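Hypothesis: this fold can be encoded by more than one sequence.
Test: take the C-alpha cells below, design a sequence, compare later.
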C-alpha cells in the first residue's frame, strides 16, 4: 500500500523489487534499480536525448482521495469515454504529478520500455 501523503517511502521505488530510486540532486537522473541509465529521446520541446528523471521528496504526495474519486467516477460516468476522461484528468494525472520529473510531462511514456519488475506476472485471458 502506498501512503498517499508520502509516497516516496513506498516499496515501489525499491531498487530490486520495484522501479528504482530517486533522481540525483545534480541532474534528476534515476539512481539505482532497473531504470537507471535509461535514456529517452524527446521532451515537450522536441528531440532532446536525456536520462529518465524523477524527483521524489519527503513531501511527495499522490492525490490522496483516489478511492473516493474513483468511486465517484464509476458511479457517475454514463459512457466509457466520460469514465476515461475523468479518470485520466483526476486520479491518474495526480500520480504522474506526484512522481514529478519525466512523469510530470506529456512525454512520460516515450522510449522503449522492456523492463518488467520481478513482481509483475504474465496473465492470459481466455
Amino acid at each position: 500500500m502506498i501512503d498517499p501523503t508520502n509516497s516516496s517511502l513506498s516499496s515501489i521505488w525499491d531498487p530490486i523489487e520495484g522501479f528504482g530510486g530517486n533522481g540525483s540532486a545534480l541532474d534528476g537522473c534515476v539512481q539505482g534499480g532497473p531504470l537507471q541509465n535509461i535514456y529517452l529521446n524527446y521532451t515537450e520541446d522536441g528531440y532532446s536525448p536525456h536520462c529518465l528523471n524523477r524527483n521524489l521528496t519527503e513531501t511527495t504526495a499522490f492525490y490522496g482521495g483516489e478511492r473516493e474519486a474513483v468511486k465517484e467516477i464509476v458511479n457517475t460516468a454514463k459512457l466509457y469515454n466520460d469514465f476515461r476522461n475523468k479518470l485520466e484528468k483526476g486520479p491518474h494525472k495526480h500520480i504522474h504529478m506526484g512522481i514529478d520529473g519525466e512523469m510530470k510531462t506529456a512525454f512520460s511514456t516515450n522510449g522503449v520500455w522492456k523492463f518488467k519488475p520481478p513482481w509483475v506476472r504474465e496473465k492470459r485471458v481466455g
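The beta strands are 39-43, 46-51. The mean pLDDT is 77.
Hypothesis status: open.
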